[in-house]
């Protein structure tokens, strides 16, 4: 098997739990996933099977879309429902205030990750140190947020928000920062990832449906449809030479390409000054 599974992760279980169920149904295959979702969250979980796992490095910067619920008036130590309340505030902003302050978080910004995260601190995971009560100060990191829109006000304190961003963005941190911008405090109380690159909620597959399918390969997305670089098409002679470590001068601009040979997708390559090197080889 070789391709991507757009796996739906339900709320209440870990990403590892649903991934392990898939692994057990296809023993002997290499399986990996990208963009872990916390147990509180649901949504699309991109899973690579076989040689397609080699393409993950070319997917990390893809657009992600989330729909989150932010509840104002309190903040937990984990910045979500699973933590302990550490701050409260009587002031609750209205729809217009929340929507206006969201715009200040759009663009390339410096964001401080939650202390309950997988960030490494002196060789230890930040959440491990936080659980031991150790004081942690994580440095801010640059993230890209394309848009934040308030979809509706669900209750006096709870707002439904759509966020489009790039990889590495913490939605829980957006809740914290938005609370501060609104002169209040806020916690993320629900989260669903509705898009991750080409993976969307509409074409996602439940783990049980994949496990029970008699034709699992039909549920996979071909690897060449997941990466969206321009194409280089090699003829049989060029393919043979490339396979043997020889290089022909190709008349294409420098850049990253999907490489095709006569019998299908070869992999992803980098072209520099006419010389093509395949960096992620996924040919079956």
Taking the alpha carbons of the first and last residues, their distance comes to 9 Å
Second rung of CATH, namely the architecture of the largest domain: 2-Layer Sandwich
Number of helices: 6
Can you count the beta strands?
A: 18
Name the overall outline. Answer: elongated
| Poorly predicted regions | none
Structural class label: alpha+beta
Going by CATH, what is the homologous superfamily of the largest domain?
Answer: Pseudouridine synthase
Element pattern in H and E:
EHEEEEEHEEEHEEHEEEHEHEEE
CATH class of the largest domain: Alpha Beta
For the biggest sheet, the summary is: 10 strands, mixed
Query: How large a portion of the residues is in β-strands, by DSSP E?
Result: 35-45%
Evaluate the radius of gyration. 22 Å
């Amino acid at each position: 098997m070789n391709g991507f599974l757009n796996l739906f992760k339900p709320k209440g279980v870990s990403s590892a739990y649903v991934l392990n169920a898939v692994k057990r149904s296809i023993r002997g295959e290499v399986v990996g996933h990208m963009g872990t979702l916390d147990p509180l969250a649901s949504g699309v979980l991109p899973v690579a099977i076989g040689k397609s796992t080699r393409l993950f490095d070319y997917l990390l910067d893809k657009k992600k879309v989330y729909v989150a619920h932010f509840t104002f008036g309190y903040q937990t130590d984990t910045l979500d429902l699973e933590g302990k309340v550490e701050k409260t505030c009587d002031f609750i902003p209205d729809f217009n205030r929340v929507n206006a302050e969201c715009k200040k978080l759009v663009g390339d910004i410096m964001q401080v990750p939650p202390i309950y995260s997988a960030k490494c601190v002196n060789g230890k995971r930040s959440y491990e140190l936080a659980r031991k009560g150790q004081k942690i100060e994580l440095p801010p990191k640059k993230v890209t947020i394309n848009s934040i829109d308030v979809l509706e006000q669900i209750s006096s304190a709870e707002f439904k928000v759509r966020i489009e961003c790039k990889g590495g963005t913490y939605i829980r941190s957006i809740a914290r920062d938005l609370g501060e911008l609104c002169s209040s405090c806020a916690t993320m109380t629900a989260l669903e990832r509705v898009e991750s690159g080409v993976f969307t909620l509409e074409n996602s597959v439940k783990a049980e449906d994949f496990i029970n399918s008699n034709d699992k390969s039909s549920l996979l997305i071909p690897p060449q449809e997941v990466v969206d670089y321009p194409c280089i098409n090699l003829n049989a002679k060029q393919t043979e030479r490339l396979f043997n470590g020889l290089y022909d001068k190709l008349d294409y601009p420098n850049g990253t390409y999907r490489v095709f040979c006569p019998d299908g997708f070869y992999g992803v390559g980098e072209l520099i000054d006419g010389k093509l090197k395949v960096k992620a080889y996924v040919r079956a």
